[in-house]
What we know:
185 residues
Amino acid sequence: xxxxxxxxxxxxxxxxxxxxxxxxxxxxxxxxxxxxxxxxxxxxxxxxxxxxxxxxxxxxxxxxxxxxxxxxxxxxxxxxxxxxxxxxxxxxxxxxxxxxxxxxxxxxxxxxxxxxxxxxxxxxxxxxxxxxxxxxxxxxxxxxxxxxxxxxxxxxxxxxxxxxxxxxxxxxxxxxxxxxxxxxx
Length: 185
């Protein structure tokens, strides 16, 4: 085996080991931003290059689809932005446009919710890069009864029994339900 080939193998192996198992779990570790998946309530700007009539602002409706001119409904719920771009391009290729290029950006994310031992529980607009600590600050801070080491996050419509216990540095995504538990002493 040549030196260059051996070097490249070692380089690839070290990169794989450095990323570790946490990187393969779609970013659930604290401080690491999880992969964003679309859901109902997200507002999107969809641009089909050189096709102004097909571009515009669209909502993911309660059925989890986006209704687009010419091609109709495209399932969006649970998909990443690039997966939705690919799905729209595939539909446009099917007899409508020869070489479609689609770009999608999220204009308005669905809100997140914070409950429990915070001063102002409720629904709040999501801001990219948000952590649990930022969410608590938006909700007016902890109450004196807050159990700061036991914060639960429900994600992707999970029920409370499936909620993960996280720390203040954990990433928050649109649609998350954050619950700050109560301490007893």
